[in-house]
Design a protein that fits this description.
heterodimer; A: mainly alpha; MetI-like fold; 13 helices; 2 strands; about 70% helix; B: mainly alpha; two-stranded antiparallel sheet; 3 helices; about 65% helix; flat
Chain lengths: ~290, ~90
């Protein structure tokens, strides 16, 4: 018997292929077509070659948005991953405290993203918001609608508040999976808290932390709804991330050609990072054996 | 069924048909001699299909870099990309 006999199972993949074709491949082809043409109405287009790519690659606002995006995603990882691990380490290990802290942590994850933006607009308003009023009455001028730095701080605070719980949940799951025997061995050897963390807990959390880094990087690189609701990309362009700028070009100015070229560049960046993280994820823990 | 809304042009049609033909070629190649994972100069264990993906992805970046950094014709970037795909497929 040949092992190729049972190839009928491939037909079960067909529905997924059709769905992906309609939701991703055909739209992507259309975007590629848009990116090489100047379209100013239905049926009215002219082929312009790589002009839009030249224009977009030389576009300073796009370059600024790209560096802003890298800075934002980098800060997100630098803050959320260590903070998430710290909180997970500090969480109770048994008793009613476990459920209580898990439920409390899950609350920000359950709120719709545009609502998160709205919550933080009101929370940080200098006239009626709890945070805004408090910090202004301490003598620190704070207004995220007028000062770029304040807008960044508010956006980061919102992002950290919203997504650190995910890192905590993942890290906590990783910690709970470590057998008690490792800790007993560490105690017998008289290992310090730091040594226990460095040589037992951290290596054992590698898998979940890689997933946390991957998820937080991708999500923060694609972030749209929360900063759009909070600052609308302002003041000026201070918090205009890639997706916000893209939407401005595509549906604000209706420049389909440049927007298509832009989104293809955006897509290629995401594709490269997805590949790198995917490979990292595949090879996680291979060195342990 | 009309495809007018997709705004097809001859160059993009040729582009996608060649990608499709290359994928068909990969499929035939796989049926004739199945791939095995190996490590090349990229230092990660990857299969032939992954190498092909990296070849295409790299080509896209080569073309973008060419558009961004030079004013010369894009054909040079295409020649460079073919070289890159061959290098990755053989030694990647």
């Amino acid at each position: 018997m040949e092992k190729w006999e049972n190839n009928k199972a491939w037909f079960l993949v067909l529905p997924v292929f059709i769905i992906v074709a309609f939701s991703a491949i055909i739209p992507l082809m259309t975007v590629v077509n848009y990116s090489l043409q100047d379209i100013w109405g239905p049926g009215q287009q002219v082929f312009v070659g790589i002009e839009w790519f030249e224009e977009m690659l030389a576009n300073e606002r796009l370059q600024d948005a790209l560096w802003r995006q890298f800075l934002f995603s980098g800060l997100v990882l630098l803050i959320e991953i260590p903070l998430g691990i710290l909180i997970a380490l500090a969480m109770p290990k048994r008793g009613w405290g476990v459920s209580a802290s898990l439920v409390t942590l899950a609350v920000p994850l359950l709120i719709p993203w545009n609502v998160i933006g709205t919550i933080w607009i009101i929370f940080t308003r200098p006239d009626i918001g709890l945070f805004g009023v408090t910090i202004n009455s301490l003598g620190i001028a704070f207004d995220h609608t007028a000062r770029p730095l304040d807008a960044w701080i508010t956006t980061m605070l919102m992002e950290v508040w919203h997504w650190t719980p995910l890192v905590v949940l993942l890290a906590y799951a990783g910690l709970r999976a470590i057998p008690e025997a490792y800790y007993q061995a560490a105690r017998i050897d008289g290992a310090s808290v730091w040594a226990t963390f460095r040589y037992i807990q951290l290596p054992k959390m590698r898998g979940v932390l890689t997933i946390a880094v991957l998820l937080r990087w991708m999500d923060s690189f694609l972030i749209y709804a929360e900063p759009f609701a909070l600052t609308g990309g302002g003041p000026g362009n201070a918090t205009t991330f890639l997706s916000i700028y893209l939407v401005k070009i595509a549906t604000g100015q209706f420049d389909l050609g440049p927007a298509a070229a832009f989104s293809l560049i955006y897509f290629l960046i995401i594709l490269l990072f997805s590949f790198i993280f995917y490979q990292a994820l595949l090879n996680v823990g291979k060195g342990d054996k | 069924m009309s495809f007018e809304w997709m705004y097809w042009t001859l160059p993009t049609a040729i582009f996608f048909i060649s990608i499709f033909l290359m994928l068909c070629g990969m499929l035939v190649w796989e049926l004739v001699s199945p791939t095995t994972e190996r490590k090349g100069f990229l230092m990660i264990p990857i299969t032939r299909g992954t190498r092909f993906f990296l070849g295409l992805l790299g080509s896209a970046y080569i073309h973008l870099a060419w558009i961004g950094f030079t004013d010369m014709t894009l054909w040079f970037a295409s020649v460079l990309s073919v070289g890159w795909i061959i290098v990755v497929m053989r030694w990647g």
